[in-house]
Amino acid sequence: MHSDLAHWEQAGWIRPVKQSRRQTQKLLAKAASDLTLAEGHAVNDDWAYIIAYSAALEAAQAALGICGYRPAHEASHLRLIESLALTVGADDLLVRRFRGLRRKRHRFLYDGEVDITGRDIEEMLKVAREVCGLVQEWIRVHHPELVD
């Protein structure tokens, strides 16, 4: 795992960081809060999708930070998503689904080419729940010192 991250660092895709326990806990708390907000659709449906996406991204960022890295500025969301396979052992299907949802988010926010449907929101919520759960379990098993 870490040798692959070292390769990513050499390629300039990630850079070293010292993420504190407090920073990790803040990211995980934000991810949980965002996921709860998105699940309750306390905002309009389009933003529920965006907030669920953010929750999953925050969990991925927590995991990568625990491993001692953060994404470089270019393609940072993509690097966070793909890093899940290297940090917490996410399977290829989850990573592919998350990548596809990232593209949809981008087209929605920046190109105005697509609408967010109820089905899209449910898929994003499902992926966010999976990512957050996977990261939490990985931390519980491999880094129990980081949880209260």
Offer a quick outline of the entry:
The protein is 73% helix and 4% strand. The protein has 148 residues and is mainly alpha-helical.
Overview of this structure, please?
With 148 residues, the protein is mostly helical. The chain has a single domain, classed as Four Helix Bundle (Hemerythrin (Met), subunit A), CATH 1.20.120. It has helices spanning 2-11, 21-39, 45-66, 76-87, 92-111, 118-142, and strands at residues 14-16, 69-71. The chain has a two-stranded antiparallel ribbon. The protein is globular, with a radius of gyration of 15 Å.
Q: Helical amount among residues, as a percent range?
A: over 70%
Q: Kindly report the name of the CATH homologous superfamily.
A: Nucleotidyltransferases  domain 2
Distance between the termini: 26 Å
Low-confidence stretches: none
**CATH top level label:** Mainly Alpha
For the structure shown, list the relevant keywords:
Four Helix Bundle (Hemerythrin (Met), subunit A); 148 residues; mainly alpha
Write the layout of secondary structure elements.
Blueprint: H1 2-11, E1 14-16, H2 21-39, H3 45-66, E2 69-71, H4 76-87, H5 92-111, H6 118-142
Antiparallel strand pairs: 1-2
Helix pairs in contact: 2-3, 2-6, 3-4, 3-6, 4-5, 5-6
